[in-house]
Design goal:
CATH architecture of the largest domain: Up-down Bundle
Structural class: alpha/beta
Helix content: 40-55%
Distance between the termini: 45 Å
Number of helices: 13
CATH superfamily of the largest domain: Dehydroquinate synthase-like - alpha domain
Bound molecules: nicotinamide-adenine-dinucleotide, zinc ion
Number of domains: 2
Strand order of the largest sheet: 1-2-9-6-5-3-4
Number of strands: 11
Largest sheet: 7 strands, mixed
Order of helices and strands: EEHEHEHEHEHEEEHHHHHHHEEH
Shape: globular
CATH topology of the largest domain: Dehydroquinate synthase-like, alpha domain
């Protein structure tokens, strides 16, 4: 078990364990109602066992289930959840439990931030990707015109991982979660005492099951260091956007067929090629090809530009990328360079 204290505006602990020991030590007595929000898939796999564990420590547990998938991260679903909470008599002392992946974390976290002007919530993440989304306090629902367009910063009072639940993840979701973990590995040299980039690639190529407690804790420490330095995204938090400029464009063009973390993997290859770091681009590309990361359905270059031009990092209509070299920078990129890199990357994948 690893405990990582996060020094946010309201501090909290992230516990990464291979069981639910936190349930016995958590102080449930303060909350008259425990309100679990989960999705159908997680509910089918782990709902009854988790509910039994909670009912053993608390007499009043409410259970709300939404459909799996990002379509549930909407204002409509938020309103339905508020109705359920009101019908069950949840008041301002209720505790919301976000039980699921990043989608549930964002939806239940945003619900917690607005329900009766804010109630406490904890995250019980069930995906690898959620080691990223559960830390940092960003919560949101989507708008039909833009992902995460309605949201806020709202810190949980705790994050409690039981990595034994990761065993049931589909392989595509494992790769997607690894996308953000590999991103954290690239950033590690710049925010921690030492880099775990080479160590992670060795572990990944050994093809044994990763020790998730150790590896998720490493990823969380990178995210922790960055969000502690920049809780409300004024400065270095932009580094977390590495791989996301091309990644977000791809995600949108592919209409979310390729999961987020896999898009970030493609985006990191793109970013390394942009900074002429063929060695790192190639190592990542080789691992992606070997592990059958979802292939891009290539569209003409200007489709991607059209999306990247709307990236929130841009200034005066010029596309900017987070680049990792000896140091990390956010740089304006010329269209000709983008096109050259695009053709180069497409060449790698289609040869
Ligand atoms: N707040 C942030 O900082 C932040 C950062 C990155 C991503 N996100 C958000 O996170 C979401 C993506 O998160 P995600 O990848 O975890 O997706 P997700 O929550 O949609 O989960 C992916 C799929 O896996 C299923 N699943 C979850 N746990 C499982 C388990 N243990 N076994 C089997 N199946 C399981 C889910 O039902 C779902 O079908 C997006 O909405 C994205 O916008 C937020
Ligand atoms: Zn991401």
């Amino acid at each position: 078990m690893v405990t990582i204290p996060i020094a946010a505006s309201t501090p909290y602990d992230v516990i990464v364990d291979n069981q639910d020991r936190w349930i016995e030590t958590f102080d449930w007595s303060y909350y008259p109602t425990i309100w679990v929000v989960t999705d159908e898939q997680v509910d089918a796999l782990y709902g009854s066992s988790f509910r039994n564990q909670l009912c053993a420590v608390h007499p009043h547990v409410i259970w709300s289930v939404v459909e799996a998938g990002d379509a549930s991260k909407s204002i409509t679903h938020l309103e339905h959840l508020v109705s359920e909470g009101l019908r069950h008599g949840c008041d301002r002392q209720s505790l919301i439990v976000a039980f699921g992946g990043g989608m549930i974390g964002d939806l239940a976290g945003f619900l917690a931030s607005v329900y009766m002007r804010g109630v406490s919530y904890i995250q019980v993440p069930t995906t690898i990707l959620a080691h990223d989304s559960a830390v940092g306090g960003k919560v949101a629902v989507n708008h039909p015109l833009a992902k995460n367009a309605i949201g806020s910063f709202y810190q949980p009072i705790g994050v409690y991982y039981n990595v034994s639940r990761l065993a049931s993840l589909p392989v595509q979701e494992v790769r997607s979660g690894l996308g953000e973990l590999i991103k954290h590995a690239y950033l590690s040299r710049h925010v921690l005492e030492s880099s775990f980039e080479d160590e992670l690639f060795s572990a990944l190529t050994e093809r044994d099951e990763l020790d998730w407690v150790t590896w998720l804790a490493k990823g969380i420490r990178v995210k922790q260091a960055i969000v502690e330095a920049d809780e409300r995204e004024q400065g270095i938090r932009a580094w977390l956007n590495f791989g996301h400029t091309f990644g977000h464009a791809l995600e949108s063009i592919e209409a979310y067929r390729i999961p987020h973390g896999e898009c970030v993997l493609h985006g990191m290859v793109f970013a390394f090629l942009l900074s002429n770091d063929e060695t790192r681009a190639k190592r990542l590309f080789d691992w992606m090809r070997l592990n059958e990361v979802t292939a891009i359905d290539w569209k003409p270059f200007d489709h991607y530009v059209e999306k990247m031009i709307r990236d929130k990092k841009n200034r005066n209509g010029i596309i900017r990328f987070v680049l990792i070299r000896d140091s990390i920078s956010v740089e304006a990129i010329q269209l000709a360079d983008l096109q050259y890199t695009f053709e180069q990357m497409k060449g790698w994948w289609t040869s």
